[in-house]
Amino acid sequence: MDDLTDQQLRDLVTRGAAFAAGARPDPVLAGKVVGTYFSKTSTRTRTAFATAALRLGGQLISYGPHDLQLNTGETIADTGKVLSRMLDLLVIRTSGPEAEMVQLSGDGRVPVVNAMSEREHPTQALTDLTTLQRCFGRVDGLRLLYCGEGNNSAVALALALTRFPGTELTLCTPPGYGLPAEVVAQARTSAAASGASIVQRHDIAQLPEQLDAVYTTRWQTTGTSKADPDWRTAFQPFQVDQQLMDRYPRAVFLHDLPAHRGEEVSAEVLDGPRSIAFDQAENKLHSAMAVLEWCSTGRTGEAEPGRVHPGDSGRLIWW
Ligand code: CP
């Protein structure tokens, strides 16, 4: 998120929403080869970036966790020096730090997209904001409750949403599983500059009065494990169930998926009429097209904030 200016962030969200509304992509990747390297499992992000690359006219080489000589001991730096001489763009998911991604790009020789790292899941946040833009016609001023583990999706969401004026983000995370203190501090600085607000609480009884959206995520984040064998006891009160949603009858429900029904969310909520989680999943593709277009051309297409409005998706116009 730190690599994007406020305007670039806003433009990427607007462009993703425009693709979701049916804007036709230009073949900006024609003649280019995009590599995707996912050392961790992925259904949505990997498919979204592969499909986006093909829809933008590019060609694709897809590496899974067992494909590269990294497995036999070749260094990350040497791997990057080779890949960056052949590929035009790289999309990477690892459970390591972002610095590894930079090495894999040949120290910046080709653009690299963080498709999830240990700390951050920035393209998920772009998708989340694109989904809010599609649903409400704006991101500014929205009130969102994030309930559950303070993972890399939450980090990226906090760093992104607080840059939109008037937004109110409440993070309700189990004790010991919140966002890192430096992330909260950075998000507070962004919020102070934009006129947004962010609070992190560890008590599910302390919830906001009014909300536009409730967001949760799987308790066991991809590529991680928890030291405490009894961690579920701490998480159980933070399940998003119908009782919680009933407190906010106008709020929509988001989930970055994959989901475990009966853990972080009840089936009734995830599969219910106010869930936009699967629209959100689809928006990963539209958002990925916006990201690859920007990486390839340095521009975010015909971003026009007024083009997207509630009801474009044919739903969520019921309030
Ligand atoms: N939300 C998300 O990143 O999904 P995948 O792990 O399936 O890519």
TrEMBL record:
Keywords: Transferase. It holds the Pfam family OTCace. Residues 140-295 form the Aspartate/ornithine carbamoyltransferase Asp/Orn-binding domain. InterPro entries: Asp/Orn_carbamoyltranf_P-bd (IPR006132), Asp/Orn_carbamoylTrfase (IPR006130), Asp/Orn_carbamoylTrfase_sf (IPR036901), Asp_carbamoyltransf_Asp/Orn-bd (IPR006131), Orn/put_carbamltrans (IPR002292). Residues 1-133 form the Aspartate/ornithine carbamoyltransferase carbamoyl-P binding domain. PROSITE patterns: CARBAMOYLTRANSFERASE (PS00097). Belongs to the aspartate/ornithine carbamoyltransferase superfamily. This is Ornithine carbamoyltransferase. It comes from Frankia umida.
